[in-house]
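Appendix B, record 7
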Amino acid sequence: MKGKLVCILVSVLLTIDLAYSQGKLDFLEIEGTAVDIYTPPNYSQDKNYPVVYFNDGQMLFGHPSIGMALQVTLDSLIQNNLIQELIVVGIAADRMRTEKYVPYQDDSFKRMPDGGTYAAYYADLIVNKIVPLIDEKYKTIQKSEGRAIFGFSFGGLNSLWMMFNYPDFFSMAAGFSASFWVNDFEMFNEAPKYQMGQKIWFDIGTAEWNYYVPFQKLLKDNSAKVNEDVFYLEVPHAAHTSTDWQKRMAMPFLIFAGTKPHTITKMEVEIEIIPSQSTPGKKFTRLNPVVTCKDGLKYSLAYEAKYEVINPEAGRVYEEGRFELYGSENLEVLVTYKEFSKKVKIKAKLLN
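Structure tokens (predicted):
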């Protein structure tokens, strides 16, 4: 089998230099799946590199005017010494994208003839075909600590599922707007599989809202170190689009391969009134404290912040930042985290 894989690689390998990137891209086809491999500037055979495997690889690379241009983001992070040099493997989706990415038996999605999910087939492709071939061809760190898997939407759901269920292969997962809602939030049931030291990034935009905040607490209840190993970002006004994902693309790379400490420089508090995506007239009311770090990392505090209501007769704030007002009086809240604090006033008229 090893010899066969080598033959597949050699027959389809194409390398190009990009005028708008100092890195290089190789293009492969592995078992009928298109794979793009970014290698960093100054790639050398004399060192081993961490690797990020990325679902929806067909979206990642290309000219900045027409695509996400991940290679430009990576070049910048590396040149500014914000992350280690690394390799990114973009695994392209095909017409079976949804079926291959969704690991749960949700009746909305097609199953294999034996009743199983196509995600098991896709996982086998990654861990038994793609990862070994990348390890053979490139200078990689060939253990879980040197591998991460990222994705968008269904691809983000798949990424976290892969890390939880293949911990010997991946030590980090990132889900941009991950579809945790599948099969009534079955992803939340994966939290007990968390292993110490695994790193997780997940986020959601308020223009595509789903209530993912409890996942942070579930992971913490299973020994995860929130804001050290597990990070959540709630992005005001962001939608389920590649344009919005591109704006926060650097975040999980700073977590997986960052070279500097995540030193907090400021805290801001967003007051959010979020319309429900499924129930007309329903609104989610939230205080969203977001910290910014010196290296550029941003994340929401949710349960980790403290919310002190100054005038409790006007309303209350729950432990994760959700609030309610009792009447027409404005609610005043002091939000604190470590040495940072900010007083906010929630105007009752915002709820009208």
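Remarks on this record: The two ends are 65 Å apart (CA to CA). Confidence is low (pLDDT under 50) at residues 1-19.
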